[in-house]
Every structure is written in C-alpha cells, then in structure tokens.
Amino acid sequence: MSSRVRGFGNTFVGLPLWNHPGARVAALVVALFLFLLVVTVPLDFWQQVGFAAACFAMAVWLNRIHGRLATLILVVLSMSASSRYMYWRLTETMSFTNWTDVAFGTGLVLAELYAFAVLMLGYFQTAWPLKRKPVPMPDDTSTWPTVDVFIPTYNEPLSVVKPTVFAAMSLDWPADKIRVFVLDDGRREEFRAFCEKVGVAHLTRDNNRHAKAGNINEALKKTDGEFVAIFDCDHIPTRSFLQICTGWFLKDRKLAMLQTPHYFFSPDPFEKNLRTFQQVPNEGELFYGLVQDGNDLWDATFFCGSCAIIRRAPLLEVGGIAVETVTEDAHTALKLHRKGYGTAYLAIPQAAGLATESLSGHVGQRIRWARGMAQICRLDNPLFGPGLSLPQRLCYLNAMLHFFYGLPRLVFLTAPLAYLLFGAHVIQASALTIAIFALPHLLHANMTNSRVQGQFRHSFWNEVYESVLAWYIMRPTLVAFLNPAAGKFNVTPKGGVIEEAYFDWEISRPYLIMLLLNLLGLAVGVMRLFVWQEVETTTVVLNLIWTVYNLIILGASIAVATETRQIRESHRVAMRLPAALRLADGNTIVCETSDFAEGGLGLKLPPGCELKKGDAVTVSLYLQEDEHAFTGKVVFHGRSHTGLALDEMTPRQEMEFVQCTFARADAWIDSWGRKRPDAPRLAARQIMRIGVMGFQNVMFHLGREMRRLLRRPAPQARAR
C-alpha cells in the first residue's frame, strides 16, 4: 500500500489499533458482512419503504454536515442503495414470459449493470482527491534541470500558434536550461520563417506517421533536455508553469510525468450554444477538477497530451509516446505505470487554450478519445499484464468503461417505449415495487454525486453531455474493440469562425429520431391512460414520467445543435488588470482592463471620459514593475466600456502583450473551480428551460427551411 493510502487510513481512523494488520482485516470482514446483509436481506413492501425512508433521512441530515467523513458515509449509503436495487433486479425481476420481454428486458438490465459499475468505480476514484501542492524549486538555479518545450502543430493557422510560442519563450527558467521547439508536421514555410525570426527551433520530418505521437517521438531523437514540457499549439502556458511543476520531480526521483488541467478561455459548443459559459461547469471540468485529483491518490494520473512535463529517461525507456492507439497520451501513462514509474497531478491551471468551436468538431474529438480507449481495452488492457496495483487497474478500468456509455445511454432514452409502444414488461414487478427500490438508488446517487462533484459538475448535465454524444461514440468504440486497427487520428480544428447562426440538421438527426419516437410513445401512453383505460395505470404513469424526462434531455441535446454566430477569430478573456490610457493631447487616464484578446483590449474608464471612435491612443499594461505600451485606436466607447483595436505589433511587442495577459502567473487561478456550486433544483429548472428551448429551435429552423422551399421557383418556371 502506498504512503498516500496509508495516510488516508491513519487520518480517517486515528487510533493506534488501526495500524495492526489483523485489526484492519477484521474490520474489513465485518464491514463487508454488514454491507452484504444490507444488500441482500429480504423485506416486504412496507418494510422496504421504512428502510429506504430511514436511510434517505439519514443522508439528508448528513448532507448538511461539512467534512469528508460525512461525504464517505453518504458514499456508503449510496453504494448500499444502488447495490440493493441491482441485487433485487437480478434476483426478482428477470422471470420473462415471452421473447419481447426477454429482448427489451435483457437490454435494460445490461445497461443498468453498466451504469452501476461506473457509479461504483466513480466513487472509488473521486471520494478522496489528493489535492497535491507545489514543491518549491531550490534557490540555486544552477541545480535546475534542462527542459525542452515541444509545441506540436499540423494544420493550425500561425495566428493560433504565435501566442503559445511567445508564452513558451517567456517561461521563468534559466535561459541556458530551456529550449523551445515548434514541431511542424505541416512543413510550412511561414512557420519556418516565423521561428527563425523570433529565435526558436523549427523541427519537421518527411512524413506524418503516427500523427502527433510520431511528431513528438521524432523530436525526441533531435533533442536532449532532461525534461520535456508539451503544449498543444493553442495551449498558452503561464510564465510560472515550470517552476510550479518541476519541484515534484526533484523530490521524487521515480516520478515520470506531472499533468496540469486543460483550461479553456473560449466556450465549447455546449457553453456557446446554450449560453452557459462561466455559469455551468463544462464537460471536461469534472475530469480535470476532480477525477484526475482522485486518480492522484492511487498514483494513477493520466497523461493528457498537453500542459504536462515528462522526464525524458523513463519516456525513452517505454519507447517514447505510444503509437499503438489514437489516445497516445493515456496509453503512454499506462506504459510508464507498468514500468513502476509514478505520475502526479497538480490541480492548478498553468496554461489555457481554445475549446472546439462547433458541435461537429467537438463530436469528432470525443470519437477519437472513445476509439482510443477502446483500443487500449483490447491491445493493452490494464486489468491484465504486469506492473499495476489494484487501485491503478480500477482507475484505468473506469476510464475505459466511461467511453462505452453510447449504447447504455440510448437504451435509457428509449426504454419506456418498450412498454408504451409494444406492451413489453422490461421489469417483472409492479410499478410501486419498482419505485420503492429504484427511487432510493436514484435519489442517493444524485445527492451523493452532487456533493462529491458539485464544484465541477452540476446535476442532470451528465445526461445531456452523454445524450449528445451517445450515438456518435457507440459505433467507433464497438468497432475499435472488435478491430483495434480500424480508424485513424483526427486533428481537432481550432481557431475558426462561424459567420452565420444555423441548425446542424445532420449532427442532430439521431436526437430528432429519438425525439419523434418518444413523442409517439407519449401520445400512445396518454391514449392508454385516458382512452383505452388499461388496468396497469401505475405502470403507464411511471413510463410516461420516464418519457417526459427523456424528452427534456433530448430537447436540451437538440438545443446544443443550434450553432450561434462566432465572428471573432480571437476570443475575449474577461480579466481586470491595472492599465493607463494616454490620449493624443498628452493626458493620461488611470483605468483597468475589462477583457482582452489577441490584438484588442476592453477598458473600464472613470466616469466623464470623452473619447470618439477612431481616436489614436496608447495603452500601458504592467508586468510586476515593468510598463509595456501599445498603440491602438478606439473602436467603441460607451458609458461603462471602451474597446480598443491595437495596431500591428512587432514580435517583441507581441511577446510583451502575451506576457502581460495570457501568460501571467495568476491568469487563470481565480476562474478555476469558482462557478456556482451545484443546486439540484436549480439545475433541474435550467435543464427544463434548455429542453424547451430545443423544441423552440427545431420549430423555428424547420419553419425557416419550409419557407425557403416554398420561395424556391418550380422547375418548369425556371425552364421557361
């Protein structure tokens, strides 16, 4: 058992007896016996009602108590309720009488088993995040190691790559111990000229084998730094990155890789199209805010391809970046763990980048991740093979299982239709009996996850994220599991624009089909309830409630497919920084920034300042004690906000602007994990509102398409 886990046990119990191995084994046996008793003991209807009510009342009381002990007890209560439900499902509800019931019922119970496994593994991963802190570097900089900074690029525009290069050149590290390399797999002349102009190395190769992994591996042959820091070409590091991260490598000589969060200063398609940016945690925040921190307790942190630093010797020992799968990053971490090397995670954002602009690009990126994890599952399954501890195997198992949610999610979105449309009884029990077992499972899971994950994932949003992607990742994961060689690496596009708002009919087609099916089921269910007056009224009502919930989730999924305009190539970042504005008449106004972007600034000026559009100004920004001045023109002036477009800058000025804005040591810390904590009732209202918005969007865009068809001239009229 690692020192991290030993610390967990001692802190949790705090008794000398607990240090005796026999006492721990005895406590574990007793705990397992009591747990199995709670899960399997038979109770009649009213006894189950009383037991469930007492457990839930205890959970509600515990949820009001701060502290990790209360959280762990809530986790145990949730595990008990969910395990009792699954035990009941498998032992008392599977006596099917016809093939329709067998087909639909077996599909549902398999989906539930999958969700149960992911829930249990998720609790294991996230119940006790390590919360690692930085280790200071030695005062003597001559003892600091040499670092090569790799910036891989393929087809991204130079405007996206420039800020990352300037930020990498600005890293606080001895100049003789750091080198910056642009790894240009596009072999572009303008990149070569830019790198030569600013003084960084430009590396190319004569092929594109193994995509990003091959690009990095080729660079490893041409460099020799003790450490390699890797940044995707749109991930701009802060100047403190190396000093924050490298201290752990000097403290732990077996540490091979340290990962930091992927933070995005632009909204992803969910945040942009649903207008939830900086209000609701995005899809990736749970992983970088909690899951990776939980993995760190078990020495199971995954490499994520960017914003990380790796010790060169262990990386070369495992053959460089893995090339067998398209998720080369996670596979590389697995290889390092198999060799006995450690990995670490610092939950401090030290770089920021661009999120995917469109839903289609977002889906493509997730397809690659899903395919790669399925490939790892087949080619190098962490459950088997040497070198991993049991906790490491479980963390990797959950990472792989997560991407197989496509089929189970589609089953949940269509399950009530089995009864409403075909009369199939997928659960062989009365509706009330189903309710008294299923409701405790659902209520405990939602309450516990809200408490554990609430800082980084709001209630019900997981269903929306998974529903949007389910259809698209189902096939690639199944195909990659059966044939790991299928598929190829795809580059996620960044830095584009969306000139006109539109509804993506193609990407939303699966949701629209499921929406129509659920609307049909709803209509048939209402007929069953009020016209046909069947005897199974409670069963009909239960399936109608489930169908309405699915319609809300599908409506929210469709709302994401309404792409909003994005006419700026450079995204604005809200940040308040001290500034000074010098006017043409020589007057200076002390002010502060409200936001910034590449080539522009938003300023908040004192009341009474008179400016006109087109006025030439000079704005000063400050970095520690240094002042940096940039010329520009006023493009907007209002009562509370003034917008500036900066003049074309020299490379030196561009670097200074990046240093004063994107690369500030504290640039992203105040934004990380600071969103409103989860409030399930508020989240439910929000999802309902977005679901209704999805229906409205479909009707609006459908009407617009119909009007276009009606305005189009008939073929005969065109011929005349």
From TrEMBL:
For this protein, the record's Pfam families field holds:
Cellulose_synt, Glycos_transf_2, PilZ
Provide the PilZ domain boundaries. Answer: 566-662
User: Does the UniProt entry include the keyword Phosphoprotein?
Assistant: no
Q: Which pathway is this protein assigned to?
A: Glycan metabolism; bacterial cellulose biosynthesis
Tell me where it mainly resides. Answer: membrane
The source's superkingdom equals Bacteria
Give a yes or no for keyword Cell inner membrane in this entry. yes
Which EC class is the enzyme in? Answer: transferase
* Protein localization: Cell inner membrane
What EC number(s) would the UniProt record show?
2.4.1.12
Reactions this protein catalyses = [(1->4)-beta-D-glucosyl](n) + UDP-alpha-D-glucose = [(1->4)-beta-D-glucosyl](n+1) + UDP + H(+)
Q: Where are the transmembrane segments?
A: 21-39, 69-87, 102-124, 418-443, 511-532, 544-562
Alphabetized InterPro entries for the sequence: Cell_synth_A, Cellulose_synth, Glyco_trans_2-like, Glycosyltr_2/OpgH_subfam, Nucleotide-diphossugar_trans, PilZ_domain
The protein's topology relative to the membrane is:
Multi-pass membrane protein
Q: Which cofactor does it need?
A: Mg(2+)
Show where the Glycosyltransferase 2-like domain sits.
149-317
Q: Which UniProt keywords apply?
A: c-di-GMP, Cell inner membrane, Cell membrane, Cellulose biosynthesis, Glycosyltransferase, Membrane, Transferase, Transmembrane, Transmembrane helix
Q: Give the protein's function.
A: Catalytic subunit of cellulose synthase. It polymerizes uridine 5'-diphosphate glucose to cellulose.
Name of protein: Cellulose synthase catalytic subunit [UDP-forming]
Organism, by scientific name, is Cupriavidus malaysiensis
